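Field: sequence (string)
Field: structure_tokens (string)

Example rows 1 and 2, in order.
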Amino acid sequence: MCTVGLSIPNEVLFDTKMNEKQTNEFARKAVALCYYTQAGVSLGYCAQIAGMSKGEFIKYLGSNHISIFSFDDKEELLEEVNNA
């Protein structure tokens, strides 16, 4: 497993009113979100990066208006709905 560290100015913590633990959690979730949306990393790995279960990560994606479903067009969506 790779460990990544980054330095965040104390002023950012002050401005955001986050403590170190909250900042760490925020950064983990942000990295996981970017990996999921921009690099195509799996839901499971991104949940692990975020420190969440898959279900929690799916809810987190939803709260950020990101769907785990992707359809190229309306017809593909309707086909999937009809097959459900």
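Row 2 begins here:
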Amino acid sequence: MGNPKAFLKIGRKEAGYRPVHDRVMDYGEVEQTLNMEDRMLQASRCMECGVPFCHWACPLGNVIPEWQDLLYRGKWQEAYRVLESTNNFPEFTGRVCPALCEKSCVLNLQHEPLTTRENEAAITEHAFNEGFARAYPPKTRTGLTVAIVGSGPAGLAAADMLNRVGHSVTVYEKDEYIGGLLRLGIPDFKLNKEIVERRLALLRAEGIEFVANTEVGKDISAEDLLAKFNAVCLATGAGQARDLPIEGRNLTGIYFALDFLKQQNRVIAGQNIQTDNLISAKGKKVLVIGGGDTGSDCVGTSIRQRAESVTQIEILPQPPENENPATPWPQYPNILKTSSSHFEGCKRQWGLASKRFVGNNGKLTAVEVAEVEWITDQNGKFTMIETGNTQLIEADIVFLCMGFTSPVHAGLLNDLGVQYDARGNVKTVRPFESSVAKVFVAGDVTNGASLVVRAIDSGRRAAAEINKQFANVIP
């Protein structure tokens, strides 16, 4: 602990966002950066607690106090080495992670936690700029082969860890770009795609083979995959979006969130989308149904497309601000979260259930919603009741952002014959191993939709289990 009094004398300082009037005119990243001196001062605030709750809260088990101290001392390269020892892609988590570590930071008791996420991103950017984030191909190969199906954070992490020990790894991706939702699902204003491509270039240089535009189960059969590789790791994500099958669902103007976000990322990449297939919010009254991060991404994208208005509704009640007695520190707090997109111009409403879509000549014009209240019984179970109050929200276009129910079963998963759990996720019979021999699983396909940081952790752990299976056959 280099400066034991820093947390008393130095306040939390965030980099903040670019001005609203500036950032809504483009898709550049909205977050700004601090200079190196300020960033090192922010790192000095770490108290190196005897019980590091930040380490406890991080799914990856990042040894945060250690690299905070190294950053404070200006040892950027050493800080990066400690950081990457537990996190394969700190440039991703440093941008899109909800920072579970910060919520559990002891300084968060005074609402002044370390800027851990920003510090993580700063260390990684410095590493790439200075050239010590570079490829380290394995010196020898084991001769064993592994196929990773899905190139999101779980698949990439598993591929990275398996390649490091010398296995030959091939990653299959059904879309035209490698990166899964990192590449097509997250808007550029949160994660610039050059950041993704930069990391992929290192992974390629280290010997990982990527095969895009190839849907396993369709372009390559499950049988052929099992015959070709010593092991297969499924990292296809939870791709079955939750639908809203209410009256009027067949009206024109109702879309799943990812269809909208993926298309916009393709447009930014330079693709030409047929006019008939274009999902555009320009000049329209937009209604976003769902209050999570995906909904926030649809808000920000709609605003950049020059929507006339944007409203976001959530069926749950509005969370309290700053503190919630139901989720005390060091738990992750269930409090009101306001994203950069919300600051750009969005009306938010809570406690509303969608009842029916209203239209004219087959086109959406409004959504009828009902006010709901949530009550708890003596066992603490939540029950939703309608108050009887309803309203019509005008909308030309609706984005359904209500999460995902399970992985897509049709195709590869059913062809493999894997078992499913009660929620429809791929069931494991041993840690990270499906019911089918030599078929492993990582990320949302088995855990359900979750965070990027949890997906990376799952990919790392799945790779470790595959290595255990290989222990007796590695030359």
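free_text_note (row 2): The chain has a mean pLDDT of 96.
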